[in-house]
Write a structure and sequence with these properties.
Number of strands: 14
CATH superfamily of the largest domain: Galactose-binding domain-like
Helix content: under 10%
CATH architecture of the largest domain: Sandwich
Distance between the termini: 27 Å
Radius of gyration: 22 Å
Amino acid sequence: MAWILPTSFNDPDSKWNNEAQSYDGNIGTGANSPNSVARTWGSYIELNITSMSCDKIRFNALYNANINSISVDVYYSNAWHNIFEGVYTHQTWEEKTIGSTQNVTKTRIRFYAKKAATAYLYELEFNEILPTSEYYQNISGGLTFISSISKSIKLKLFGRLDLLGQWGKSRKHYISVGTGATIIGKKE
């Protein structure tokens, strides 16, 4: 599981401002859309991602007496699918499940305005489901890549490896590279 930010946006009605701030990794900024007509749904903002296995999205948005409902759709199998419509918590991460794992390419969100008001979407992320099976790949220089693809990568090295002057030749060694590029080496 990994939360992934969108890579681009589409504003079909040109009613949103600062669209890229809804996926800049900062919940202190956000996209906004004024809704000048009371008791109506505002315009959609679409947030795109490269096709991925996804089982839910999460968002952080403004909620108040005037902006009090959200509609969330995800796009998979060549169609839009509504996964949530209703109230949510003010400026708190809200997770909404798809109901199954799907190859998702985008989501779209709109807000309901009880009175004329401006909606704010501070952040949105897709939950990527990562494969769990191991696989092997040869890398030049006699290295074999082994990974369970779960936020860490293991490199299996054969032959001489002198990492910080610790290991000698003809032994198997593993280097684990986790998130944040932390490198830990250990003998098998």
